[in-house]
Design goal:
191 residues; 3-stranded mixed beta sheet; alpha/beta; 23% helix; single chain
């Protein structure tokens, strides 16, 4: 098989919806490695094809990424100025590591994501394959660069607000068959 020049680490984080807890803790525990980490790349918005890689203010990385990721044009993916908020790449960017989260076609995101209807049958397999191609090509190309991606970050613009209001957290109610006090945080658990 093909071996990258640098390590490519695949990590699943938890606690993103509650405040990026998993990625913040990861960055804290691996602080000594952050200076040697070229980027954090996140695919987080469910099904829907990847359309863009926003630079999150790491604009000096644009010429490097455009050159290395020229092949992604065949998948209709562009490297663009801009931001993606609310996901785990932000924990890395806060430590100076270029962090990128893909922009994706929203597909049925606002109809199904984080609902009881958010089940595997809603996944669009061709979009998931395209996302895996974009992720793997990007990871391999960046891992094989002679140097780390540029670290200089301009203050990125605030991400555009979501067109959907956040779900309101409701306190847990005691079960009718149980007079014990309610427990829990009142927040929905992430799948």
């Amino acid at each position: 098989g093909i071996r990258p020049a640098r390590t490519i680490r695949f990590v699943l984080f938890t606690g993103e919806e509650q405040g990026l807890f998993g990625s913040k803790e990861y960055v804290k525990r691996h602080k000594a490695e952050m200076a040697k980490t070229s980027m954090a790349l996140v695919h987080d918005t469910g099904t829907g094809r990847v359309t863009e890689i926003p630079l999150q203010g790491f604009d000096d990385a644009k010429p490097v990424l455009e050159k290395e990721l020229e092949i992604l044009k065949e998948l209709d993916v562009k490297v663009v100025a801009g931001t993606q908020g609310g996901t785990d790449h932000l924990s890395f960017a806060a430590e100076g590591v270029p962090g990128f989260a893909f922009h994706q076609d929203p597909a049925e995101y606002y109809l199904t994501h984080h609902t009881q209807s958010d089940t595997l049958d809603k996944a669009r397999w061709p979009d998931l394959v395209q996302g895996a191609q974009v992720m793997s090509l990007t990871a391999m190309r960046v891992a094989n660069l002679p140097d780390l991606l540029p670290r200089k970050q301009a203050k990125p613009a605030a991400p555009a607000p979501s067109p959907m209001p956040p779900a309101e957290a409701k306190p847990s109610a005691p079960s009718p068959s149980n007079n014990a006090p309610a427990s829990g945080t009142g927040r929905k658990r992430k799948k």
